[in-house]
Amino acid sequence: MTQLPQSTERKLGLVIDLDTCVGCHACVISCKGWNTENYGAPLSDQNAYGADPSGTFLNRVHTYEVQAEGAAAQTVHFPKSCLHCDDAPCVTVCPTGASYKRQEDGIVLVNEDACIGCGLCAWACPYGARELDKAEGVMKKCTLCVDRIYNENLPEEDREPACVRTCPAGARHFGDFADPDSNVSRLTAKRGGMDLMPELGTKPTNKYLPPRPKDQLEQTDMLAPLLDIVAEDTNGFLGWLDQQLSRLPGDNKQRGK
Amino acid sequence: MHPAPSVIIFTTLSGLGFGLLLWLGMASEAPTGWEAFAFFAVAFALSVGGLAASTFHLGHPERAWRAFSQWKTSWLSREGICAVAALIVMGLYAAALIFFGRHYAILGWLGAWLSLGTIFTTSMIYGQLASVPRWNTSLTSVLYLTLGITGGALLFGKVGIALPLLLLAGAVQIIWWLTGDKAFAARGSDLGTATGLGEGGKVRSMAHPHSSPNYLMREFIYVVGRKHSQKLRAISFILMAVLPAVLLLLPFSHLFAIVAVLSHVAGVAVSRWLFFAEAEHVVGLYYGMR
Ligand code: SF4
Ligand code: SF4
Ligand code: SF4
Q: pLDDT by residue (tens digit) across B110-123?
């Protein structure tokens, strides 16, 4: 049913730490690996070994450069998958009821047997989190690994999304945002977790932790005044030493002359 | 947005078809017999043809019947229901006129409202999308409704009313284009808000996640050069409004009337191509392409 639940009992989602992500794309590969052989239709590739390879992915990593006025540019790797929005526009536009948001945990899913592949939900998602599979003609999206997180056939430590399980940098965290004491709620509060495109009113569940500000040059210069020894008295031993040192190539005082 | 032929044909033809059905339903002196047959044949060919075209791009057209179920939230579902209801009611109305020469005005009016509803719900499929700021305005519905009503009047041969409607449609179209050009910036989304990194400085896309275009880029990132689009807008405007109006002002001839209709349809089709091709989806921001 494409009516959104008034509220959900739990709000499962991800916290993605943009400070820690190293852009290795391991989460992309483990996501595709798990999801192509489990929930629903496989994630097809077209022309995978040709000049123009293309395929369905539920998680993709962009790379950006952020530069503040007068500061050095900073590279930020940016993984992006479905944010399991509270006010998910992709769900309400669906004409068949194939798209839905679960009342029990807030996960947004597609029932592929009912999907006609009209693509409208992908049009409605501002984040590019849905992709129509070319081979199967149905809509694919992140399921938050719904077939792992509740799967009692898996060892306890594997009952989390494949991307979280695989991330070598510990940049991805999975948990319940409805619980203020959960790991994800605490991380979000502590590090100023943010929403993507909040102006569109989708109320995403997933949060992104901003990169920590880089050290500025002034800060590393704290010891500089102590190091810059200038001899006031040019006659004594220190004066002589100062003159000798100034003769060395590259000295500031010489260049200043 | 990718200007797919299926959606251009769908919106252009079904808009005209339901526009004609609207006028046929409202007519106090409705045609009967063979004349009625000709009118309804054209109207049904256009509306049904347009709807059929819209199923071409579906991944699973055999499940299309499911699309009638979510009328509580989905404009696409509402559009499907309105269209089928309009076709059934107008089918009965047409049968009475063609075979029995009977004019059931109440059926006609009901069908007219449903036809109008179909054009409106079609416009809302696009107008509802906050992710495409250019479409996300009630002006989109005004545009679709005016063009549908105008095209219908032209097809029905209502010269007196078609003339002012053509001018109105031309004006609405120009207003829609001009406001649309400002819509993306007005929405306030940029790479800074899309990534949340905007407060830290200027954000620039350095590397895409993939080496060649994917579904998202093919579907949502279509760029038309400004010069090119201005040229097409001029062509569309002349074909849609100016030429038909001039032809209607000339002494009446059947040839002129037919050319006026064809010119209008061609103009609307160009306008619809631009409607899709010029529409900027916010996902383009993530690729540094907006
Ligand atoms: S990120 Fe996109 S697909 Fe996921 S819930 Fe939000 S709008 Fe829907
Ligand atoms: S593509 Fe499938 S899930 Fe998406 S709106 Fe259409 S029917 Fe619903
Ligand atoms: S696996 Fe972790 S570090 Fe690597 S790209 Fe994904 S989130 Fe970033």
A: 999 999 999 999 99
Confidence bin at A247 (pLDDT 50/70/90):
confident
pLDDT score, position A71? 87
CA distances from B126 to A124, A198, B11, B121, B233 (A): 9, 21, 11, 9, 20
Query: Could you tell me if A138 and A114 are in contact, meaning their C-beta atoms sit under 8 angstroms apart?
Result: no
- Who among A67, A132, A196 is closest to B59 (CB)? A132
Residue B122: partners with Cβ closer than 8 Å, 6 or more residues away:
B11, B14, B15, B79, B144
- Please give the Cα distance from B209 to A59 (Å, whole number): 9
Q: B197 and A131 in contact by Cβ < 8 A?
A: no
**Which residues are bridge partners to A75 per DSSP?**
A65
Please identify among residues 65-84 of chain A the ones whose CB lies closer than 8 Å to any CB of chain B: 65-69, 71, 74-76, 78, 80
Assess whether the C-beta atom of A122 lies below 6 angstroms from ligand 1: no
> Of all atoms in ligand 3, which is nearest to the CA of residue A16?
7
Q: Do B206 and A123 touch (CB under 8 A)?
A: no
Percent of chain B whose pLDDT exceeds 90: 92
* Res. B59 pLDDT band, cuts 50 70 90: very high
Q: What is the ipTM of this complex?
A: 0.94
Contact B281 A94 (CB under 8 A): no
From the candidates B140, B189, B286, B289, which should be mutated to test the interface with A, based on the most A CB atoms within 10 A?
A: B286
pLDDT tens figures, A47-94: 999 999 999 999 999 999 999 988 889 999 999 999 999 999 999 999
CA distance A244 to A230: 13
User: What is the rounded average pLDDT of the residues B259-266?
Assistant: 96
Q: Which of A53, A137, A197 sits opposite B282 (nearest CB)?
A: A197
CATH topology of domain A12-209: Alpha-Beta Plaits (3.30.70)
B268: exposed, middle or buried (Cβ count in 10 Å: 0-12, 13-18, 19+): buried
- The reply to whether ligand 2 has any atom less than 6 angstroms from the CB of A108 is no
Distance (Å, rounded) from C-alpha A193 to C-alpha A32?
26
Is residue A26 less than 8 Å (CB to CB) from chain B?
Answer: no
H-run or E-run covering B92? helix B75-100
Looking at B101-137, list the stretches that DSSP marks H as alpha helix, in order from N- to C-terminal side: 105-127
Number of neighbouring beta carbons within 10 Å of residue A173 = 21
Q: Give the per-residue pLDDT at A214.
A: 76
Q: Return the structure tokens found at A41.
A: 């239709």
Listed by start position, the domains of chain A span 12-209, 217-256
Asked if residue A257 has pLDDT above 60, the reply is: no
CA of B124 to the centre of ligand 3 (A): 39
The CB density around residue A166, as the number of other CB atoms within 10 Å, is 18
